[in-house]
Amino acid sequence: MFMDLDASSIRVAAFDRTADLGQVEQLAKFPVALIGDTRGRMGMMDPRIRPITPKPLMFGSILPVWCREGDNLAVHRALEEIRPGDVMVINAMGEVTRAIIGALIAEAAVIHGMAGLVVDGSIRDAEELAELGLPVYARGVSPAGPYKSGPGTVGESVACGSLVCRGGDVIIGDADGLIVLPPSEVAGALTAASAQQDYEETMKTRFRSQGS
Ligand SMILES: O=C([O-])CC(=O)C(=O)O
Ligand SMILES: [Mg+2]
């Protein structure tokens, strides 16, 4: 453990990371809005989970964490499960009065390879998180810090911003917000997003030629 804490109340489940992150990186070059349009305009997270840091562009494979309101023992335990390219997606029960993570734990997570952070709850140390260059999305910001008693889970599917987030699902974020999809659908999403972008470019060219 990063700190000397008893994490016996945290249940940890194994899951497979099957996403081809190179392909996900290609998909993340398209706007989240456009990707969503090709998927029935579904699968986007509650937009009240907003970008907190100035560089929101983010992609990766989900490491799900479930915390009790105002308690981050599960986040500490999750540090040991991070693999490079993981985005930690934390269900903190939508509770915003108490932050579940700050810059200290986030920096430890980045050292383990964490590519981004999404919290259905609050974060703190917002300025330091910005300096870290980490894409962070959260429902709120609060100076009140978390307790560390548990219980919680790491690796089990969680609810976050009205979406089911499974371990190994793909998540992409930009200034508009977040979208989640199964890794098996990334290749199809890439083809569909490319076709949608071509269509939108054709429309723009037509508008511009009509306007001139
Ligand atoms: O104290 C905590 O547990 C949360 C925090 O601010 C940090 O990680 O920097
Ligand atoms: Mg702190």
TrEMBL record:
<comment type="function">
    <text>Catalyzes the aldol cleavage of 4-hydroxy-4-methyl-2-oxoglutarate (HMG) into 2 molecules of pyruvate. Also contains a secondary oxaloacetate (OAA) decarboxylase activity due to the common pyruvate enolate transition state formed following C-C bond cleavage in the retro-aldol and decarboxylation reactions.</text>
</comment>
<protein>
    <recommendedName>
        <fullName>Putative 4-hydroxy-4-methyl-2-oxoglutarate aldolase</fullName>
        <ecNumber>4.1.1.112</ecNumber>
        <ecNumber>4.1.3.17</ecNumber>
    </recommendedName>
</protein>
<comment type="similarity">
    <text>Belongs to the class II aldolase/RraA-like family.</text>
</comment>
<dbReference type="InterPro" id="IPR036704">
    <property type="entry name" value="RraA/RraA-like_sf"/>
</dbReference>
<dbReference type="Pfam" id="PF03737">
    <property type="entry name" value="RraA-like"/>
</dbReference>
<dbReference type="InterPro" id="IPR005493">
    <property type="entry name" value="RraA/RraA-like"/>
</dbReference>
<comment type="subunit">
    <text>Homotrimer.</text>
</comment>
